[in-house]
Design a protein that fits this description.
Layout lengths: L1 H15 L5 H6 L3 H17 L7 E5 L5 H9 L4 E6 L2 H11 L5 E5 L11 E7 L8 H11 E12 L3 H6 L14 H10 L2 E11 L7 H11 L6 H4 L2 E10 L1
Parallel strand pairs: 1-2, 1-4, 2-3, 4-5
Antiparallel strand pairs: 5-7, 6-7
Helix pairs in contact: 3-9
């Protein structure tokens, strides 16, 4: 039922909420969003610069913002994009449908099947919606070639902070997972070479672009730890298949 709620929310949001287009509203509407985009782009430019892939899978591509980054890296690779929302997938098709090396799958990732194995799997800001993290990680590792890599960018949970300030967490956002807990799941499922880094950094309680930029300049070079987590809005966890 929860996965259907995620699908329905984004289908309706694309039609009714994002008046100037999802990508603009998500990443470019104001200075805070623009800076979040730049932080994410910088993280990918740094950590993905040496990734070599022929078969690429992206989970939850949305408008294809980050698909475009990886497509620029290797336009001859095979790209498979899977999304639970038909409205989201429609945007990706509009962007990449003219290319013969793209395939598009409308599916809950839990039900996704493919005739390929992948040497690189990527997901940005979709993993926090998966209610069964163990199953999702297991499936990622199942689809990876031996030696293949996966990058997950997901939101850093701040449930205690929300509780202290009397903020209700919507059902849609109750499945965020801490880097430490996700690390443990990846190990249990047989992943290796796990590294964790902050992606989008911000100044707590005062989410202003100028303050966020200062925090980013100080902390973005370091691996994620509990202190940096206080300033982390989203993080990257990268891992491999043995």
């Amino acid at each position: 039922m929860f996965n259907q709620e995620v699908r329905d929310y984004y289908n309706q949001a694309i039609k009714n909420k994002f008046n100037q287009g999802y990508e603009y509203e998500r990443w470019f509407k104001d200075d805070v969003r623009k800076l979040s985009y730049q932080m994410t782009l910088s993280a990918l430019q740094h950590f993905a610069k040496d990734i070599d892939f022929a078969n690429y899978l992206e989970i939850g591509p949305g408008a294809g913002t980050w698909t475009d980054f990886f497509f620029t890296m290797n336009k001859s690779a095979n790209f498979d994009l899977v999304d639970i929302s038909d409205e989201m997938l429609k945007m990706a098709k509009q962007r990449f449908g003219r290319f013969g090396n793209f395939r598009f799958f409308l599916s809950d990732f839990a039900d996704f099947v493919s005739d390929r194995k992948y040497d690189f799997i990527f997901s940005a800001r979709a993993f926090e919606y998966f209610s069964d993290k163990e199953k999702a990680v297991n499936k990622i590792l199942t689809f990876l070639q031996p030696g293949g890599q996966a990058f997950i960018i997901t939101k850093y949970p701040k449930y205690l902070r929300s509780k202290l300030f009397g903020k209700d967490v919507k059902q849609l956002h109750k499945y965020q997972i801490s880097p430490a807990d996700l690390h443990k799941i990846i190990l249990r499922q047989g992943g290796c070479c796990i590294e964790k880094y902050p992606v989008v950094l911000y100044f707590p309680l005062f989410n202003k672009a100028g303050l966020n930029k200062q925090v980013y300049q100080i902390l973005h070079k370091y691996k994620l730890n509990s202190f940096i987590g206080l300033f982390t809005e989203s993080y990257l966890i990268k891992f491999s298949k043995k």
